[in-house]
Amino acid sequence: LEYGGSDMFVRDNERLDDPANVWLHEYVHSRQAFAPTRETRWLTEGTAVYYAALLTLEQERITFAEFSEFIDDGARPAYDDVVLSDPGTWTDSAQYIKGPLAAGRIDEAMREETDQTGTFEETVARLNGVDGRVTQAELLDAVEDVGGPASRTAATDYTETTAGVTMWNDTTHSRLFGQLPADVRYALPNESAGYRVSGPYRNGTVGSPVSLAAGETLRVDALVANDGGTEGDYNATLTVDGSVVDSATGTVAAGGERTVPLSHSFAEAGTD
Predict the structure, then answer these.
(1) CA separation for the pair 87, 95 (Å, rounded)
(2) Confidence class of residue 167 from pLDDT cuts 50, 70 and 90?
(3) Please, what sign has the CA dihedral across residues 144, 148, 151, 156?
């Protein structure tokens, strides 16, 4: 909850690694000094949701895929007839759902036209200085002053019409918003060569599902890949009955992958 001009209250169990980051959402509200009119009312929640997710991505607490899926919610058919500058058309909290997507697309258009020097954040800062309530014309004027005429056209389409609004992809985001954070993922080997058994009875590869005898050691060549835009840390673990029995840490380059061997010796027979 944002209360008054700069105070906010957040429950201590709200997470930071969530595109709907309440801490940042309420912080953005505390930085909104503009007073909207009916036509610009969507800005209040639209920008709070958008910047909470964008800042969480920039802090590398979520992946671009999580950010994209969250913001793209505004492209659902439920919002096809919503005109953001006309609250009478809003359905299902459109200002919270379609508003962030529109804010993001305006931001993208401004960065594209200005070679990344003009942003929607600067536009909002200008609106904070408006004496009186911010009209639709003042919003569009501020967008054009910062981002140029093409950005104004985009902002008009996204706020005054029912034109479809879609999410931009990771390539566009990396080009206009900066490098994507690391996105490390883990996977088991796809082939039997990735599973090796050694011990008193045999030494070699085994297929999946793996069946072992007591006294044998299993080595799993786990796969670690980084689909993000910067180098990332990994912590690969092998667990047995919920307990970690082997682990490996390190870094993996952006767009890179590596094989990480993990092993464990089974002294006693277990159950399926």
Answers:
(1) 9
(2) very high
(3) positive
Phi/psi of residue 251, nearest 5 degrees: -125, 155
- Show Cβ contacts of residue 176 under 8 Å, excluding neighbours closer than 6 positions: 108, 111, 112, 116, 168
Q: Give the residue ranges of DSSP H helices in the chain.
A: 22-30, 42-58, 64-71, 94-113, 120-128, 136-147, 149-160, 170-177
Helix (H, G, I), strand (E, B) or coil at 265: strand
Asked if the peptide bond before residue 77 counts as cis, ω within 30 degrees of 0, the response is: no
Closest CA to 42 of 103, 92, 132: 103
Quote the CA–CA distance of 67 and 269 in Å, as a whole number: 45
- Stated pTM of the model: 0.76
Q: How far apart are CA 87 and CA 125, in angstroms?
A: 23
Residue with tokens 């439920």: 78
Residue 271 has pLDDT above 80, yes or no: no
What are the CA-CA distances from residue 92 to residues 87, 160, 220, 264 (Å)? 11, 18, 48, 52
Summarize pLDDT for 125-163 with one digit per residue, the tens: 999 999 999 999 999 999 999 999 999 999 999 999 998
For residues 216 and 196, give the distance between their C-alpha atoms in angstroms, rounded to a whole number. Answer: 10
| C-alpha distances in Å from residue 156, one per residue of 34, 152, 172, 224 | 19, 6, 21, 44
- The encoded tokens of residue 7 equal 């105070």
Q: Are 167 and 101 in contact (CB under 8 A)?
A: yes
| DSSP letter assigned to residue 115 | T
Q: What angle do CA 104, 129, 90 make, to 5 degrees?
A: 40
